[in-house]
């Protein structure tokens, strides 16, 4: 696997946004990049997926073009942020089936959790459309230009 890892996340999901906030605080830009799939500039087709596929589970792509999804995307993103010790149980043979089941349940219930408070709070709704203006995003968290969203082969 070649770093950096690009993590595709749903910034509208309160629980997802909380996890991303933790990862952003710990990850260095040479190890982990972030792409918010809920941002209007994001085009799922540019990475050969549909938005429904991207929303159905977490996706991440290594710099060499290798994709990981679901629990593996979580595991590798936490490793990239130097938090692998906390995610290690996701890779253990005895606990992995239980975490897989929990992850599938979370993916099914995630759309129904939008009522939870978002970590960005009222700053999301300053302009009345509840989106974070691009100028407020750190440079490494802005949507990648379209040419950078394509998979290198």
Briefly summarize what is shown:
The chain is α+β, with helices and mostly antiparallel strands and 153 residues long.
List the helices and strands and how they pair.
Layout: E1 5-9, H1 14-26, E2 32-36, H2 51-56, E3 59-62, E4 67-69, H3 70-80, H4 84-87, H5 96-109
Parallel strand pairs: 1-2
Antiparallel strand pairs: 1-3, 3-4
Largest sheet: 4 strands, mixed
**Please, how many helices?**
5
What's the β-strand tally? 4
The ordered H/E elements are: EHEHEEHHH
What sort of overall outline do the alpha carbons produce when their principal axes are compared? globular
Strand content: 5-15%
The structural class is alpha+beta
Average residue-wise pLDDT: 82
Radius of gyration: 15 Å
Query: Strand order within the widest sheet?
Result: 2-1-3-4
Poorly predicted runs are 132-136, 146-153
What is the count of structural domains? 1
Distance between the termini: 14 Å
- Proportion of helical residues: 25-40%
GO molecular function, one term: protein-disulfide reductase activity
Q: Keywords, please?
A:
153 residues, alpha+beta, globular, disordered C terminus, DCC1_Trx, DCC1-like
Q: Could you explain the architecture of this structure?
A:
GO terms for molecular function: protein-disulfide reductase activity. InterPro entries: DCC1-like (IPR007263), DCC1_Trx (IPR044691). Pfam families: DCC1-like (PF04134). With 153 residues, the chain is of the alpha+beta class. The chain has helices at 14-26, 51-56, 70-80, 84-87, 96-109, and strands at 5-9, 32-36, 59-62, 67-69. Helix 1 links the parallel strand 1 (5-9) and strand 2 (32-36). The model is unreliable at 132-136 and 146-153 (pLDDT under 50). It contains 5 helices and 4 strands. The protein has a 4-stranded mixed sheet, covered by helices on one side. The protein starts with a strand and ends in a 44-residue tail after the last helix. The protein has one domain (5-112). The longest helix is centred in the C-terminal third of the chain and has 14 residues, at 96-109.
């Amino acid at each position: 696997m070649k770093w950096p890892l690009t993590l595709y996340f749903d910034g509208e999901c309160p629980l997802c946004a909380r996890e991303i906030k933790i990862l952003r605080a710990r990850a260095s830009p040479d190890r982990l990049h972030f792409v918010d799939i809920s941002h209007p500039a994001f085009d799922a087709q540019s990475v050969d997926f549909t938005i429904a596929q991207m929303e159905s589970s977490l996706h991440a792509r290594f710099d060499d073009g290798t994709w990981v999804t679901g629990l593996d995307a979580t595991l590798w993103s936490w490793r990239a942020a130097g938090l692998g010790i906390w995610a290690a149980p996701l890779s253990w043979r005895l606990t992995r089936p239980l975490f897989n089941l929990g992850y599938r349940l979370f993916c099914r219930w995630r759309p129904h959790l939008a009522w939870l408070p978002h970590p960005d709070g009222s700053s999301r709704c300053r302009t009345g459309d509840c989106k974070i203006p691009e100028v407020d995003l750190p440079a490494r968290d802005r949507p990648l230009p379209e040419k950078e969203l394509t998979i290198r082969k």
